[in-house]
């Protein structure tokens, strides 16, 4: 069943000037990415909040052909309802068609396909009947943790789809507030300039972008993809300490969040973390006292180990293994 949200939908097919972008899976991340694009198209803004804050993203040019029509594919009615609830307020939402169990028609209509499903679903989705013709010659972006370009290319080879351009990208959940740190894997051979510009444009709608080699993507997944979860623990811990010392709960969470935001502002302005830490540590003062407790607790090694562990787990997510978080010791 498909839900057409605006006038003149033309079945989700691109008009002559615009591209059709299809999300195969549109949950937390798909909604955040689509939201960033719709926001940009609705307001006419070609820069993100991050981009205007002295990011390298300011240099991203506007593609010759912008995405102008969208298919958001899910399986369940409640997922469709969530998309409408979270994105329905954008004027560009009229160009979104939500499709339940209609991956094939949405892929046929697409110029660009974004895999926004769970990693273990990729093989099944690509192997579905009709996908060979539907995918041939298209740009296929994957944000799925642990799924390599080689794996996707092997699925495409198995179904006989040819001429696809596969690009691996790792955004994070801060995309919802246009503050994602997104890594785009460099392709070999390099992408055409048109595709390169298009992909950079899409992901600068949701925050900052860097390009790194494919073989770093699992570590990028751990640092950027999982990172918000790790940083949230730091926020909770800061607030918990303050709550324990009598600060009201709501103010403690706000103070922790704003303190982290201010610190990241300094870091993004170019301050090295070690210099920042040193500047706060007045000799004989309270900061150095607290910092030494963190060192005694092995916080630095523990956080670094969490990133290393998540890297190893990420590398196994796309391999169809179960129990990838089982202890390795
Ligand atoms: N969450 C995060 O912070 C990050 C996640 N990622 C990656 O992004 C991907 C998506 O994660 P996330 O958004 O959190 O996951 P969600 O579970 O929120 O979204 C998955 C979406 O896929 C849909 N879906 C599932 N099966 C199919 C199918 N066969 N055909 C079409 N749609 C389908 C689901 O809809 P329904 O339930 O109705 O089937 C849902 O909309 C994952 O691969 C993850 O590794 C990357 C960076 C960060
Ligand atoms: O935890 C996960 O598997 C996904 C990928 C990165 C963030 N969330």
UniProtKB/TrEMBL annotation:
<dbReference type="InterPro" id="IPR036291">
    <property type="entry name" value="NAD(P)-bd_dom_sf"/>
</dbReference>
<dbReference type="InterPro" id="IPR053790">
    <property type="entry name" value="P5CR-like_CS"/>
</dbReference>
<dbReference type="Pfam" id="PF03807">
    <property type="entry name" value="F420_oxidored"/>
</dbReference>
<dbReference type="GO" id="GO:0055129">
    <property type="term" value="P:L-proline biosynthetic process"/>
</dbReference>
<dbReference type="Pfam" id="PF14748">
    <property type="entry name" value="P5CR_dimer"/>
</dbReference>
<keyword id="KW-0641">Proline biosynthesis</keyword>
<comment type="pathway">
    <text>Amino-acid biosynthesis; L-proline biosynthesis; L-proline from L-glutamate 5-semialdehyde: step 1/1.</text>
</comment>
<keyword id="KW-0521">NADP</keyword>
<feature type="domain" description="Pyrroline-5-carboxylate reductase dimerisation">
    <location>
        <begin position="215"/>
        <end position="316"/>
    </location>
</feature>
<dbReference type="InterPro" id="IPR008927">
    <property type="entry name" value="6-PGluconate_DH-like_C_sf"/>
</dbReference>
<dbReference type="InterPro" id="IPR029036">
    <property type="entry name" value="P5CR_dimer"/>
</dbReference>
<protein>
    <recommendedName>
        <fullName>Pyrroline-5-carboxylate reductase</fullName>
        <ecNumber>1.5.1.2</ecNumber>
    </recommendedName>
</protein>
<dbReference type="InterPro" id="IPR000304">
    <property type="entry name" value="Pyrroline-COOH_reductase"/>
</dbReference>
<comment type="similarity">
    <text>Belongs to the pyrroline-5-carboxylate reductase family.</text>
</comment>
<keyword id="KW-0560">Oxidoreductase</keyword>
<dbReference type="GO" id="GO:0004735">
    <property type="term" value="F:pyrroline-5-carboxylate reductase activity"/>
</dbReference>
<keyword id="KW-0028">Amino-acid biosynthesis</keyword>
<dbReference type="InterPro" id="IPR028939">
    <property type="entry name" value="P5C_Rdtase_cat_N"/>
</dbReference>
<feature type="domain" description="Pyrroline-5-carboxylate reductase catalytic N-terminal">
    <location>
        <begin position="21"/>
        <end position="146"/>
    </location>
</feature>
């Amino acid at each position: 069943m498909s839900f057409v949200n605006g006038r003149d939908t033309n079945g989700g097919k691109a008009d002559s000037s615009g591209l059709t972008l299809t999300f195969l899976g549109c949950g937390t991340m798909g909604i955040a990415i689509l939201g960033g694009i719709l926001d940009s198209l609705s307001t006419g803004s070609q820069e993100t909040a991050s981009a205007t804050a002295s990011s390298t993203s300011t240099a991203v040019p506007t593609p010759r052909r912008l995405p102008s029509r969208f298919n958001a594919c899910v399986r369940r009615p409640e997922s469709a309802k969530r998309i409408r609830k979270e994105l329905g307020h954008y004027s560009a939402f009229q160009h979104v068609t939500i499709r339940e169990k209609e991956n094939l028609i949405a892929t046929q209509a697409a110029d660009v396909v974004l895999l926004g499903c769970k990693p273990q679903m990729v093989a099944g989705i690509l192997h579905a009947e009709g996908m060979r013709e539907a995918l041939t010659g298209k740009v296929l972006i994957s944000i799925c943790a642990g799924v390599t370009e080689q794996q996707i290319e092997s699925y495409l080879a198995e179904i006989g789809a040819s001429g696809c351009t596969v690009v691996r990208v790792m955004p994070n959940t801060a995309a919802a507030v246009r503050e994602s740190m997104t890594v785009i894997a460099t392709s070999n051979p390099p992408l055409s300039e048109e595709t390169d510009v298009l992909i950079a444009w899409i992901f600068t709608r949701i925050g900052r972008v860097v390009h790194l080699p494919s073989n770093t993507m699992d570590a990028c997944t751990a640092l950027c993809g999982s990172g918000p979860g790790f940083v949230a623990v730091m926020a909770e811990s800061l607030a918990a300490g303050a709550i324990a010392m009598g600060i009201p709960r709501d103010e403690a969470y706000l103070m922790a969040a704003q303190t982290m935001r201010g610190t990241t502002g300094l870091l993004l302005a170019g301050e090295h973390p070690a210099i920042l830490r040193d500047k706060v540590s007045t000799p004989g003062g309270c900061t150095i006292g607290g910092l030494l407790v963190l060192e005694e607790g092995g916080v630095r090694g523990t956080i670094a180990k969490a990133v290393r562990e998540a890297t190893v787990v990420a590398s196994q997510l796309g391999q169809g293994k179960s129990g990838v978080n089982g202890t390795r010791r």
